[in-house]
Amino acid sequence: LGRHKDDHRQSGFTYNGVEFSQNNLNIFAGLCAVDVPEHVEQMMQALEDNGEVCTRMGAYKPRTNPYSFQGHGKGCLPWVFEKAGKHGIKVIAMEITHESHIEEIDNCLEKLGRPTGVMLQIGTRNTQNFELLKAIGRQKTYPALLKRGFGITLNESLNAAEYLASEGNANVIFCLRGMKTEAGQPHRNMVDFAHVPAVKRLTRMPVCVDPSHSVGSRDRSPDGILDVMHATAQGVIAGANMVLVDFHPKPEKALVDGPQALLMKELPAYLEDI
Ligand code: PEP
């Protein structure tokens, strides 16, 4: 990924017809967690209406509390993938938390005739789960989206990305999602999007920002602009190549992270602003 002294290859790759590079921008608006078919349908319809071909959909959720909703897992994959195909979604960013999930996703897509594509997301809690990284690195069917570890150095997170490439999969996007701070206020995490150009300088990975998990709320500045929008703007102005952002038709009914989800009616203005 550009971290080896003899590696001078260009950045970027194309997956399922969508180009990812250090020179373009893809938006992945979607549900933090898949809940009911109606919400997935509404989300994908809104994306189609706005000409978007990528989304985020969490089926396997890594939760801090074992009693919180853990995601529908493989049970929801068939209908999520079918709906994606119906609405022209080409790439779904989907977090996996265990190696076996790769096979579950692959089997399901194969059975359905591959109506859509999947980008395997590695969450911040698994940035240094080296066995998971190696498993994702060993397969070359799906690209990877690696979240920065929220409590480790940037260098450690970049080395984690290299685990994917060293096993053979260099189709990797690096995602900034904020860092843990002691106070946890006013945002859930300290927004770290000033690091976008640094990561682009240090590696040849396209860089994603996740304003939703950085900010963690629908708070607004005194001028009425959502903090999530301000953070998105910071990331995009800094040169981000991908935006991963939570939307939900009914945030009050969302099973994970509802308070940070933007409303469906805010999608056109959000896209326009970017
Ligand atoms: C997510 O994107 O759904 C998520 C859990 O993010 P993170 O790993 O950054 O907390």
TrEMBL record:
Transmembrane residue ranges: none
Keywords: Transferase
Domain DAHP synthetase I/KDSA intervals: 23-270
Protein name: 3-deoxy-7-phosphoheptulonate synthase
Portion of the full sequence shown: 79 to 352 of 375
